[in-house]
Write a structure and sequence with these properties.
The chain is α/β, with parallel strands linked by helices and about 100 residues long. It has three helices and four strands. The chain has one domain (about 5-90). The protein has a four-stranded mixed sheet, covered by helices on one side. Strand 2 (about 55-60), helix 3 and strand 3 (about 80-85) form a beta-alpha-beta unit. The chain is globular, with a radius of gyration of 13 Å.
Length: about 100
């Protein structure tokens, strides 16, 4: 058996941080329109990111929330994998 990396995926599908399992969980009980709850959700998302081996970025458009997550991953030396809309791997992102 081999070890698999733990990864968080993000894409520009939401106006709240980035769309992934963690934001789906948090929006079930946090309201992005309430600044305190948005801040709490962002903090919880960062805690999950800290426990990941990789961040997978999907799509060609990088939102403000995605950029924050990418910067955090870089600061934490977490591997970042970029994918286009067809889920084909890219070397870097380009905003379109």
């Amino acid at each position: 058996m081999f070890a698999r990396p733990t990864a968080i995926a993000c894409s520009p599908q939401s106006n709240w941080f980035c769309r992934s399992l963690r934001t789906s969980m948090f929006t079930g009980f946090l309201d992005d329109a309430i600044p305190e709850e948005r801040s709490l959700g962002l903090s919880m998302g960062l805690e999950l990111l800290k426990r990941c081996d990789e961040v997978w970025v999907f799509g060609n458009k990088i939102t403000e929330g995605m950029e924050s997550e990418i910067k955090a991953a870089l600061e934490l030396n977490i591997l970042i994998q970029y994918f286009d809309e067809r889920c084909e791997r890219r070397t870097a992102h380009s905003d379109t």
